[in-house]
Design goal:
The complex is a heterodimer of chains A (about 260) and B (about 300). Chain A is mainly alpha-helical and about 260 residues long. Chain A contains twelve helices and no strands. Chain A is globular. The chains are: A mainly alpha (about 260), B alpha/beta (about 300).
């Protein structure tokens, strides 16, 4: 059970985590990357003499194509080392002997990761929406839906990153595994399942297809099309990974001893 | 601590420790490296779980209710690392806010504890630039922030230069005068003798003995002495000294210096000195080496190794 005092402490932990993102320039790094992507999407078509997509959904669809990568980078930068670093860097000797439950520490760090990641993605979608409004003179509700799916997906990435961070010993292994899990391993598993005629509805990177699909239907190449579950299934997959990842991370972090 | 123990696989780091620390005492927890001191302290501060037994602070089980048990406790465990991106003031604010202290209290106490550990000039600097000794001072500061009733200190002078060690000992002594309970592990006997009222000795995870420092000193079987002769004694003379009543061992250490262990009190010392002088050996100096506690420590550690 989480009490009022636990919540107060969780917000204290969260505020210092966010201070970490600011001081370690992780938030700034993500903001620079965000600006770079937005700049390229907006700057390249005129530079190459190509017109912008005429419909707002197609226009924002270009942005949505990079959302998956942004979500993974958010998970890597704001979640992957959150728990294991307390052991590896021995900062747990400062934090743990305080009268604060480990569950509260996990909750605080989780809140900070979600806040920072959602802020980045909301900024990204805000920029995309404003640009769509200026260039195509209209926006659609599907843009908001795509943003909502993106927020759900990044929560899923964070849940998995926390799980890995709670069980792995080092920050490097946790960070690298989180990154490659979402950029490579899940993709390979999904493709192999499709080859084996098994619908990979439970693979989060497959489910992440709805972020773009809600804006514009996917292009179908002859002989192969990427399986994307329906919206409800995708959201359930994101929620499942987030909830299970967070619970396992909390239990694992609670049980883990500071021996180093 | 009741039957407190910790195993790491087949290795027993702590056997079944029964130890009670009376309120208001400064209790030294002695033992060589690897004896189980840090394991005990990590269990007490909820960093690791015991394999058996129970640890209580103020009557509250540390494992069952860690937040309640640790509320009135300040800890320094090994040389902790701090978040390098924070300054001492920010770290103290973090600890204070977690403990529910008001911002006014945090500001006032932070200033006081940083002054105590002589880090006032570094209050706003990021900890990532700090030396090990400075981090140790900061650890002491954060342990004192909330004016705890109990201080658990794991080798608090580790990593400090001689001046820093003396300053930390002075802090501990002043806390003792304030009536706080202090549980301090150390392998430095002089340190424990200087600041503690009572002590326990452990080795290989087993409690060897405990008591007040006076009680422990009385339990020492032998005392070490160093005798200096004008001319180094020959082997026959050394054998003769070794055969004197009460002399347990004789070791020449060069330049006419002979170290030996002697059982018995001051009367035995007088008898040995008198016998040496009467024998015609030219004794120029005779002085005790180390303290009774040190002798006891060495005897006990030797026994467990055998």
């Amino acid at each position: 059970m989480i009490g009022k005092e636990d919540l107060r402490q969780a917000f204290v932990v969260a505020s210092y985590e966010i201070r970490k993102y600011l001081r370690s320039r992780r938030l700034m790094g993500m903001s620079v990357l965000l600006a770079l992507i937005i700049g390229l999407i907006l700057g390249l078509p005129p530079a190459l003499g190509s017109p912008y997509p005429s419909s707002p959904n197609d226009f924002v669809g270009t942005f949505a194509g990079f959302t998956g990568l942004l979500a993974v980078l958010c998970g890597v930068l704001f979640a992957a080392d959150a728990l294991c670093s307390e052991h590896e860097k021995r900062t747990g000797y400062f934090l743990f002997p305080n009268p604060v439950r480990r569950e509260t520490i996990v909750l605080g760090k989780l809140l900070a990761s979600l806040a920072a990641s959602w802020m980045i993605l909301l900024l990204y979608y805000a920029a995309a929406t404003v640009a769509a409004l200026v260039i195509t003179r209209s926006v659609t509700w599907e843009i908001g839906l795509s943003a909502a799916y993106a927020l759900a997906y990044v929560a899923c990435v964070i849940g998995v990153a926390f799980l890995l961070s709670s069980v792995l010993k080092g920050t490097i292994s946790s960070t690298v595994l989180t990154f490659f899990l979402f950029t490579l391993i899940f993709g390979i598993v999904g493709a192999l399942l499709q080859v084996g005629k098994v619908a990979p509805w439970f693979i989060p990177t497959q489910a992440a297809g709805i972020i773009s699909n809600v804006l514009s239907p996917p292009s179908v190449f002859p002989g192969f099309s990427q399986f994307v579950p329906d919206a409800a299934t995708s959201l359930a997959v994101f929620a499942g990974y987030f909830v299970i990842g967070s619970i396992v991370a909390t239990v694992s972090f609670h049980r883990r001893e500071l021996k180093t | 601590m009741k039957g407190l123990g910790k195993d790491y696989g087949a290795f027993t780091a702590l056997g079944a420790l029964d130890l009670a620390i009376p309120a208001g005492t400064c209790f030294g927890y002695l033992g060589p490296n690897g004896a189980g001191k840090s394991t005990t302290i990590k269990i007490l501060t909820n960093l690791i779980r015991p394999s058996r037994g129970q640890a209580q602070l103020f009557g509250v089980d540390v494992q069952r209710s860690p937040t309640q048990a640790l509320r009135k406790v300040g800890t320094v465990i090994e040389t902790p690392e701090f978040y390098g991106y924070l300054s001492p003031l920010e770290l103290l604010e973090y600890a204070g806010r977690l403990r529910g202290m008001s911002r006014t209290d945090i500001a006032a106490r932070s200033e006081a504890v940083l002054k105590t550990v002589k880090l006032t000039g570094w209050a706003d600097k990021r900890v990532e630039t700090f030396s090990k000794g400075m981090k140790q001072r900061l650890a002491v500061a954060q342990a004192l922030l909330h004016e705890p009733d109990l201080l658990i200190l794991d080798e608090p002078t580790s990593g400090l230069d001689p001046r820093g060690m003396a300053e930390v000992r002075d802090i501990v002594k002043s806390l003792k005068r304030e009536g706080r309970t202090i549980f301090m592990s150390s392998h430095l006997l002089g340190e424990v003798q200087e600041v503690c009222d009572a002590a326990a000795l452990i080795d290989h995870g087993k409690l060897l003995l405990q008591g007040t420092l006076d009680e422990l000193a009385r339990r020492a079987d032998t005392t070490a002495f160093q005798a200096t002769f004008l001319a180094p004694p020959n082997p026959d003379e050394l054998a003769w000294i070794g055969g004197l009543p009460g002399v347990k061992s004789v070791n020449p250490s060069g330049n006419g210096v002979v170290e030996f262990r002697l059982a018995g009190g001051p009367e035995a010392q007088v008898a040995v000195i008198s016998a040496i002088v009467r024998s015609g050996l030219q004794l120029t100096a005779f002085r005790p080496v180390g303290t009774a506690l040190e002798q006891l420590y060495l005897e006990q550690i030797q026994e467990t190794e055998q």
